[in-house]
Amino acid sequence: MGALLLVLLLALVLGGVGFAVHILWWVALVVLVVWLLGFVLRSAGSGGSRGRWYRW
Q1: In this predicted model, what pLDDT tens digit does every residue of 7-53 receive, in sequence order?
Q2: Which among 44, 36, 42 has a CA at the least distance from the CA of 55?
Q3: Does the predicted model carry a pTM greater than 0.90?
Q4: Per residue in 25-37, is it b (16+ CB within 10 Å) or e — as a string?
Q5: CA atoms of 19 and 45, how far apart (whole Å)
Q6: How many angstroms separate the Cα of 19 from the Cα of each of 12, 24, 27, 35, 40?
Q7: Which residues contact 45 (CB under 8 A, 6 or more apart)?
Q8: DSSP 53
Q9: Where does the chain cross the membrane (predicted)?
Q10: Given 3-state DSSP classes, what are the helix, strand and coil percentages for the chain, each rounded to the nearest 5?
Q11: CA neighbours closer than 13 Å in the CB half-sphere of residue 45
Q12: For residues 53 and 45, is the Cβ–Cβ distance under 8 A?
């Protein structure tokens, strides 16, 4: 009985990790799109002396 609970707990943990990694892939994709849009907006818009689209 203990081994069955251990296997089920391990499956639950690995399933949660898989879900988290899936969500992180979507977050990385959104960040990549925003980063690429920054280059487009920088070249199209008129900004500061260097034409940066962010304020750091």
Answers
A1: 888 888 888 888 888 889 999 999 999 988 887 877 666 555 555 55
A2: 42
A3: no
A4: eeeeeeeeeeeee
A5: 39
A6: 11, 9, 13, 24, 32
A7: 51, 53
A8: S
A9: 25-45
A10: 75, 0, 25
A11: 13
A12: yes
